[in-house]
Amino acid sequence: MDASATIVEIRDAPDAMEALRAANAQDASCAIVGAGSKARLGRHAPQARLLSTRALSGVTLYEPDELVLSARAGTPLIEIEALIAAQGQRLAFEPMDHAPLLGGAPRRATVGGMIAVNASGPRRIKAGAARDHLLGFRCVTGRGEEVKSGGRVMKNVTGYDLSKLVCGSFGTLALLTEVTLKVLPRPETEETLLAIGLSEAESLSLLRRASATPCEVCSLTLLPPGAALGLDAHAAALRLEGPEISVAARRDDLIARFSKSGARFEILKATESAALWARLRDAVPVAEHAGQVWRLSVAPTDGFSVVERIRRAGAPLLAHFYDWAGGLIWLCLASAPDAHAAIIREAVDAHGGHATLIRADEETRATIEVFHPQPAPLAALTRRVKESFDPLHVLERGRMRAEF
Amino acid sequence: MTLIMPAPEPEIMARRDELIARLRAILSPGGLIVDEVARRAYECDAFTMYRALPLVVALPETVEEVCAVMALAAEMDVKIVPRGAGTSLSGGSMPLEDGILLGMSKFNRILEIDYENRCARVEPGVQNLAISKAVEAEGFYYAPDPSSQIACSIGGNVAENAGGVHCLKYGLTTNNILGLNVALMGGELVRLGGKHLDSEAYDLLGLMTGSEGLLGVVTEVTVRILQKPSTARGLLLGFASVAEGARCVGAIIAHGVIPGGLEMMDKATVHAVERFQPCGYPLDAEALVIVELDGTQAEVDHLVAVVEDIARAEGATTLRVSTSEAERLQFWAGRKNAFPAVSCIAPDYLCMDGTIPRGRLPDALAGMDKLAKQYGLGVANVFHAGDGNLHPLILYDASKEGDVERAEKLGFDILRLCVSLGGVLTGEHGVGVEKRDLMGEMFSEVDLNQQMRVKCAFDPAGRLNPGKVFPTLHRCAEFGMMHVSGGAMRFPDLPRF
């Protein structure tokens, strides 16, 4: 964010239309800022104007029986979570809070920012990501036009699914004014089974096998020694949710299935379990180390090989852990001007997947590609899609890609 | 017949021989159909109301052939209509008289099953059900299960974002695929996603899903496979009114229960089903609800008790719980037979596909009843009640003068009703040509222009499946920096093509 930028308050769609039409006329680049909790995410690219969505706030529709909620984009997430929790519901994709990683006050994110980065947590592997829960939205595109897409119903294939496109677009296509989300019942209880004492590779294999049982494990994480809970050995953490009777039966089933694995089992009851997953959701085991943080998404079976390759190439790994049964890797490395990008991307490209630089200083994020480089035809298509919403690149110029 | 398609372009028709010669050079022997009788087999998909004879039918065997056909079409400025198994209910793969019909049926191999990563790589012509069959020995399945699953192909499922009876809990196609290989107009191939989750940058995988063959041609799909729930039990609930049935459905969800399946049928459908192949449905019920609960044994038994209590409290007049797998399947037998059963009580039927906010179901039914009387046609109803997706079946007789037009008009009015209740035109069948001219009921011209600009990003010449989804054709160049004001379609009475 640039202190010299002009702040424009957006209270409604007409404000956004006016601001973006002016930006087009004057060739002024614009950042979209809710609470600013993700200002240090993405490429460092100062913009001429800041469009503040702070005043664009409030829940506009909530029908618990219909599992649907609409809110203006600047609505604090904490407000939405409290409102739906009172009805025994939640956002099942478990949006992460970036504060432990990026600094600033905790839990201040807005719902618009959550969608802009497709924020999803450890439950993503079973419940889906934010992109799977966005039913529809209203926005003002980079060209200053008010557009809606999707709806408020669960099942809808009318027209292109632009919800998928805006989810994770980092504000580069449109300023969201209102989003409609699917909310789901909160389960009766949760519990975490820890399988402790295996090697890193063995623990990951256990997680993958557990994910292929009918035990409906909703999160599968591997914590290296020291990453959490004060344990000095590797711990595979398996979260179970549902009615008490079902959770107990599935936990016993898992213990029976892996009784010969050589692991020692411990159980975390609801409160402890919830506390652990809140830390993992926010990537605290890597966030609490000083250094650059990367987030890698690969096929679960490739997770270990990718990390091994990065280690062997000599990258100074300070901390790491695996989520999504090995498919999501959080890495913290000693800082370097190039953020060890070549080593990391080479390791990921050898297997397939992507690597995103999440935490680094401004200079590094201005010079290193924060998002994974794309092959030429895909990069060209991506740019054409961008320009279909924002032909003059006025929205978040350079935030995702240097070329737009 | 009210549908107007873009008129065949004489300059394309005139170059048919050249096109055939060049396609013959690209395709393997047997990959090109030029003979009129053989082309007739492709004149429509499962939306049989409208037909057209394709200019030629190309049946490529390799990805290279697909890309070469796409490149040739771009070079010669010829239209392409992609087709999977041809089961679209909205005319998504209806051919164009001046277009190549690109059939993907030869892409029928399962390339890889990767149990450890819980996914499978398949070619687009593989049948939906064949994926589940291929992995069932290991206890896995592919979740989306559209009624046409014994015939429809996964490529078509991606194009239409197909659903099924289990999508409230397990999602639609878009929630169950990880990767796509896509051939673009011009012949370039892009890979979207893979075996990993949530590729950053724009989610073109999500955008492609449900794009009805207007953006690219899918050449490979990586699907997620899930472990089969260890058990499933069904409940059959009868109610004295549709409103009570709908209230019970709402109460189940309000209690925090998300059933694997939650279906409703009205009395007309129940009677048709019982006449077609009796399966023990109560004939006195005005609404019949099927609830399926799946998961581990302990959980399912617990939830069955919860739902039983809710059903009693909501005044169910029939309440049966399956005690065996055979009985559970029996509960479903009638629902699965609903469409063929309805075709026995009327010579023809038109299957609609709106979605409404579930709580508006009684209003929707009352409104439909009124409309049906107004048009003098019968309507039978099956619903995916859990997610508010309605399938009104409009009963008509195509041999009767004016019945087709009346059925079509009634269908349009029913969809307008869905939109007015806060719903949408299509929940899972797609817009295609069927609902194309209704898009303006749901979207403003500005909304539609933005969607068409997205198409232009993929297909600047507008040659891929034109005439589908969008009520007007534009040249991409028209979408410059012009600001269009107002929401209403301008000159709504002008013919659009």
From TrEMBL, chain B:
Its cofactor is FAD. InterPro entries: FAD-bd_oxidored_4_C, FAD-bd_PCMH, FAD-bd_PCMH-like_sf, FAD-bd_PCMH_sub2, FAD-linked_Oxase-like_C, FAD-linked_OxidoTrans_Type4, Oxid_FAD_bind_N, Vanillyl_alc_oxidase_C-sub2. Residues 50-228 form the FAD-binding PCMH-type domain. PROSITE patterns: FAD_PCMH (PS51387). SUPFAM superfamilies: FAD-binding/transporter-associated domain-like (SSF56176), FAD-linked oxidases, C-terminal domain (SSF55103). The keyword Protease does not apply. Keywords: FAD, Flavoprotein, Oxidoreductase. PANTHER family: GLYCOLATE OXIDASE SUBUNIT GLCD. This is FAD-linked oxidase C-terminal domain-containing protein.
